[in-house]
Amino acid sequence: MGKAYMGKILNVDLSSGSIDEEIIPDEVYRNVTSGIGLAALLLYQRIPRDADPLGPDNVLAFMSGLLTGTGTWFSGRWMVAGKSPLTGGWGDANCGGTFSPAIKRCGYDGIFIRGISPKPVYLCIIDGKVEIKDASHLWGTDAIEAEKLITAEHAAPRVRVAVIGPAAEKKSLITGISNDHGRYAARSGLGAVMGSKNLKAVALAGKAKVVVDNLDKVKALNASFKKWLKKGPNIISSGGLSFIGRFMRVSPIAMAQSGDLVKMAMSRFGTISSNVLSSENGDSPIKNWRGAGFRDFPISSHANNLNPQRIIDHEIKKYHCYNCPLGCGSILRVDEANLKETHKPEYETCCAFGALQLNNDMNSIYRLNEFCNRAGFDTISAGATIAFAMECYEQGILTKEDTGGLDLSWGNSEAALALLDKMSRREGIGDILADGTRKAAERIGKGSEHFAIHAGGQELPMHDSRYDPGFAVSYSLEPTPGRHTNHGYQWTEMFALHRIFKKLPKTAGLSTVKSKYKNTKDKNMLLSTASKYMQFINGAGVCLFGVQMGGKLDVPAYTNAATGWSLSPEEYLKIGERIQNIRQSFNVKHGIVPRHDFSLPDRACGNPPLEAGPMRGIKLDIKSLQDDFLSSMDWDVNTGAPTKVKLNDLGLDYIANEIYK
Question: What is the pTM of this model?
């Protein structure tokens, strides 16, 4: 055991029932940290290239972060990784709550599960005792109720549970894994992998402690950050956010997004602060990415009903993830939706079930979010799939006969809820849609593929790549495509990476809006740096929102203090780059050509351009954007694969030799 990390993992084979601990050498942590880095290294080695994502050879890794348990602010993220059944390549998902420290309290940095159980089971690790327990009585139970039942079985409130819902049991490819009664590691379809293994849950409780090299230094870094976090009054309001969004929409001058704005908006509202900001400025995609706010979804109406202040008026308690000083989550009581206790929907959920479907009924969004949390759906993919179905219905590709009598007209929230229920049970049209838009379009045909908005099989997030071309790069070239948590131009502004990496250019505070669409060397340097840095962050188990605080959270300094290492920020960036190259190499090993197989749909690139709204007339030069990013990453411009030279430079010779035979 080193400092900050536990130095071992647990391997479980559900087919044979075998369980064994494995010591991980110290140099491995130095090379890839823990979290997503350790998962990437081991899963690249252990999942064979022809493995069926829903078969016994796929390995599902539950990971804590390197800094979890060290006292570092924002270090409560846990990750799950494996071969994605949604994309056929590298898959991972990231979540907050309280599950990450539970992994370490059991004495492990990660739990690696392979095989398929002959019957429903759950993995239980309580005070050092590891058991594979029968879960027949839990199978079919929704995720929230199953977590309550498992906790009650052990009569110990400190038991932390990661669990799937009924939709994941039925192997819907757009399902995730829940903890803390509805917090989700949602993306990549890894809930379906868990369901395919007949694994209902992982329940953890332990007493192991994390050793920290310099706790005083960690506390000093925390005190400095918290002083900034609490500094000044919080003057942000729903009206203020709406005004900022309108100003951004009409002004020819663009203002860089600052850590101070993120601090105020997130501490008051959480991610729903984007409900009005993004709908006003064009960041929110509308009507399955073909609509415009003024014409199809009036912003004034949207701002009225999806207003973040109205949402938090239902708040009965705020909550913080483990070791988080911000506390962006909350529990609501919404009597109008018959919900006595429900998680506040995130922005992505509000947009996916709102603007994307032309649904302005917030009460229905509360209900849709609660249904997803219980059934196990990724709200981004589920909302996008229903929007796809609505467009197919509008175009006559789907009829009432096909939908089982559902009127899938735009904005019909009751039909959306009924369709979601069918998807969770794989009933009728729900069976066709349960695996996301790519699979649905393959099954429906008739030109429906033009309405399937995904990259590599994963539905795009609720940030319009036409508004932020940096997201166009991230959605199409990152190892997990269609993800907004790696980088975009907005993110590089919030990251303020020049404060950590002194040789980087500083983002201009003011610029012209038109300049956003001009590709420059500095922009590509910032995007590629963010791509690498976020993998170091995911190895550390640190939250994206902490990183978005204008560079005030110095994660390299925290890592040195916790581990006793004395690495420079640039050396940590090299670790992030190594992790990123392993993840992308996983895709190549499994037969994916990233640049081709993860290409963006025409709509997401502005082809044809919209005729109205903030994104009117915008058409991205996607080839140039991709060429420049791939060059800055030292990845092959034609394929998107890491070059042999780059892999050798990162000490990944064995990978280079395998994929360049």
Answer: 0.97
